[in-house]
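Note to self: the last two entries modelled the partners one at a time, which told us nothing about the interface. This time every component goes in together.
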Amino acid sequence: MVWAPRGVAVAAINKAGAVRSAIVGACGLLGLGGATAEATEVKTAILGYNEPDRVKAFEAIIDGKHDFANGKIFNFRFVYDALTGASATGAAPASFTQTFTRPSGEGSYQVAPGETPLDDTFRDTRLALSAGLTMPLNRVTNFSFGLYGSGEYDYTSLGANASLTRDFNQRNTTVALRGAFFDDSISPEGGRPVPFSAMPDEGIQKSKLPGDGSKSVMDLGLGVTQVINRSTVVHLNYTYSDVSDYQTDPFKMLSVVDPVTGDPRGADSYLYESRPDARTKHVFFGRVAKHLGRDIVHLSYRYFTDDWGINSHTLDLTYRWNFGGGKYLKPHLRYYDQAAADFYQGFLVDGEALPQHASADYRLGDMQAVTYGLTHGRIVGDGHELTLRLEYYVQSGESHPAEAIGVLKDFDLFPTVDALIFQVGYTFNLFE
Amino acid sequence: MKVFQQGEYWQGRFKAMASPCEILVEVAQEAEARLLCEAAETEARRIETKFSRYREDNIVHALNNGAGQPVNVDDETADLLDFAHRCHEISGGRFDVTSGVLRRIWKFDGSSGIPSRKQAKALLPLIGWPRITWQRPQVTVPPGMEIDLGGLGKEYAVDRVATLLADGSTAPMLVNFGGDLRAVGRRNGGKSWQVGVELPGAVDSAGLKLDLGVGALATSGDARRFLLRDGVRYPHILNPRTAWPVMRAPRSVTVLGDTCTEAGLLATLAMLRGAEAEAFLAEQGVQNWVIR
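The predicted structure of the combined assembly is written out below.
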């Protein structure tokens, strides 16, 4: 969870019209009454995401901001997502055709020898709404609070957040304190399987946990934004996050393989995964924004660690190349490196004692990912902004881990995933 | 102060800050109009007296003759210095209230009297807001340096007067100091003020005609003030980082904004961008008129 830094200097290097907003803000220092007019800014975007042979997603976003011109700002956000396609189940490839029961218990699908098992019935739409209000408590202190709600076929999330920001040092330093709470519930198609219970054959009931799964998330964060000089702004942020209760993915499983051949054992070959029901995360984030002539460079580093054993490093670099007249090109490079969760394992071995928890979800594994992107923005019409963004994402891990057994040594146990992302954005003002 | 009836509103006229000043107030009674216009004139003169660099009895003189010693300033001056500090920061150093010393070598009188690069360079150590020690309420101006709030003065005065009048009356009013103007309070029946301002340097002299509800208009640039040598025009807008005119600056920039100070500053920053003035203004999404 990353906070958008407040502070005029940061705004100045983030968006078109920023010098004007900064000046309007500065005019506030003079108390020139009615310095700003009420204004509503609306940002819209549609995004397409495509992982060849896997997930396709479409997303529409509407972001509204109304400035009441008295220091109060109302934010509104609407997101619609539609996902379809195939997603990895966690089961390992095998030397023969594997048959899997669909999560609903009705029907089955087959996976060819050597192929990574994908459940191709992955389909979901999600609607998320959030709204928030920021209000000044005094000349240098702002208080914000907001509500969040999202719903999809089998998942709902409700959240609330509040934050306090204060400017110090002639507004060159901004400190932000933030808290958020989310209450999520999941009621998957076919119910929640008992961890480590076996995937039943088609038409047979799986062993289920009673009721819906629920999860609560509490985030606490502290952020500092510091203007270093007229061209440099540094932002530092720490977030502590505590997640409790059901965090297992009810659709993921692990193959139990023969210790010699590496193929699934004869009976009860696939066990549903099991994750701990408590997780504590720490996120350290730092970003430098610097003006280079009329261009702007953003460099950020994020370190993530949690008590599941996951550690990750993210380096993100963008260079906004301004051509004047509101036109710009912004190349983007992102590098991500993750060390696996302690309970991540590609498969279970027949005859060995079950661990306390295990998951073969590749998202919890050792991996590296690189994103290459390019955004183009331009002003059209009466100060409206049009942006086009194209990104290519590629993620890879250990295809042939040392612990592979038998036939598994010959298979790609961590196939490379790549995705193409295209976004069109349009920003306009409702009232002048 | 002269107050005239002009149909549905009253007009008060006076001269201040070397400009013709005009106050339009839409009230029924002459007495009320006169009261508002007089309050406007008093406030305009107060600001002129307080921040004029041509006087020896005001805070600006005290600051610039402090012999490098700290000077305590009042809240209003402190607010303006905070504002000047932010403007310096926002403009990447292009807007600098210490650049007034450049008047020593640059006299924009239409002549060909261009100073040498060496003369310009010699002044650079005396320019630069970061050289001023400003810790509210105390400011220290190093010997030889000058703070000049004149670059903000007229627009600030327009906004101050407009704010003062709006505090005392809900009547629709227009404050116009030599073409820098602000309208407060919507006129009855959806009417707007028909505003006419000169666009300095424009080929046709008709100027700009605009219907203004509430908002402000400010112009930067003075077509009559320039230097000309060997066919090269040196415009009256100086880059404080080079002590040299911004050579490809427009003749004038006029900007529509919410306050006169905001509009004036955007116009000045656009001038300081030189050849990129139009691009800068487009990026800011403000209505503007650029004359080249």
